[in-house]
Amino acid sequence: MESLTNILDRLEPQLVPRRSLVQPVLSQITTAKRRARMIRRALWFLVIVALITLIIALTRSSSVRVVQLGWQQWATVRQHLPIFIQALGETVPWMAVAAFASVIALAVGQTWLTRRARVVRPATLAGALVIGSLSVSAGAYAAVTSSPEPGPAFMQLERIINSIGKQETVIEGQTFEFPAGLTDTQIRAQAEMTNLNKITNTLPVQRGADGGQTPAPVGSLVTQILA
Amino acid sequence: MKPMDEQTTIQLVLSGDDAAYGILIEQHQWGLIRFCFTITHDADQAEDIAQEAFIRAYNQLSNYDPSFRFSTWLYRIARNLALNHIRLATPLPLDGQLELQADNDHTQTLDREAREAQVRWAVDQLPEHYRSVIHLHYWDHQPYVAIAAVMGIPESTVKSWLYRARQQLKETCHGIIN
Predict the structure, then answer these.
(1) Are A29 and A120 in a shared domain?
(2) Least confident segment among A190-199, B69-78, B164-173
(3) Which of A143, A160, B113, B162 has the fewest CB atoms within 10 Å distance of its CB?
(4) Cβ separation of B119 and A4 shorter than 8 Å?
């Protein structure tokens, strides 16, 4: 009897090769590459459209005003950075930004896939294309419809910037605002003058015979000052 | 023309020369189709799987580890594809099945072709992993380390599977082989 090893060594699968795989494989690779190239171009076109959409959305919103304010008053804004960021957040068209980010993510993901696999499956790219188109549409819708107005943070930032150049001084529990560059004596005199004006404004008004208005008697004014 | 080194050919393909991939296909296609046939028992399926394996290999060529032979890597891809395929497909009846003759007197008279046909049938009856190691060891003459890489198992398991496959073949073909 013959040994099993001898028989196995002689045996080979009974299969006569019928067709060469060279042409079918190479043509399939070429087709896949061509499709992938087309879809890749379409995806980058979407990136450009998404970028334009984002720019339109940003210019339509008040973000430019906030950025402008920040640019012009950087020294002050720097000290109130959280409020500036908050103000920016109130005006940014988030939908357009999200749409742009998703298109960029798709493009980057596609590039990464292409590096890993020499030919990315056309179905994968087509899926990316559909998602990209939807994102761009959403971004365009956001750019056309929404124009966020500045919110409370922006108002606060404006108030802070407007107060620049004025000196806030507290005298005897009262807060006074004076122009910058005054000496202590001038500040105190200004404060007294302001107080005096306030008191004068609270006095009863006497109506004269000719119909004109005169302040109340000086005696009462002196009494109030002394008090 | 001087035949190109396999690694040089792969480098050419990686640099964008698709025609160089044709050389690799030419070199490995028949062996690969036969290997797929061992798993699927269907010539059409074997060709389709081999074609798909070549495309997958091309797509993943940048991940190829040059410390292995290209064929080892390719066979591994093909085996995974074939296993997925037979998992999804309904099992095909084996062509040319022979009734095993247990009668010793009769088997003594079997000539060489008949013995081969019986062993071939017995190999076809083995589980897929035993068939694959038999194919790679006896018909492709691959070393244990390459078989282990194709099958994704340790070298010791390859030896053990080969031993068990032979034992099963001996049991099935009892009386006609030594």
Answers:
(1) yes
(2) A190-199
(3) B113
(4) yes
Q: How far is A49 from A136, CA to CA, in rounded Å?
A: 7
- Cβ distance of A17 and B29 shorter than 8 Å: yes
Instruction: Tell me how many residue pairs between chain A and chain B have CB atoms under 8 A apart.
Output: 101
CB atoms under 10 Å from CB of B107, counted, come to 19
B70 and B115 fall within a common domain: no
**Facing residue for B177 by CB, picked from A2, A13, A15:** A2
Same domain, A178 and A140: no
Residue B90 phi, psi dihedral angles, 5° rounding: -80, 145
Residue A81: pLDDT band with limits 50, 70, 90? confident
Count of structural domains, chain B: 2
B5 and B54 inside one domain: yes
Q: What was the ipTM of the complex prediction?
A: 0.73
CA distance A154 to chain B (A): 53
List Cβ<8 Å contacts ≥24 apart for B104-109: B104/B175, B107/B175, B107/B176
Instruction: Determine the structural domain holding residue B113 and report its residue range.
Output: 95-178
Most B CBs within 10 A among A37, A118, A124, hence the mutation to make, goes to A118
Judge: A14–B63 Cβ closer than 8 Å, yes or no. Answer: no
Q: Which domain holds residue A201?
A: 166-206
Q: Give the mean pLDDT of A55-84.
A: 82
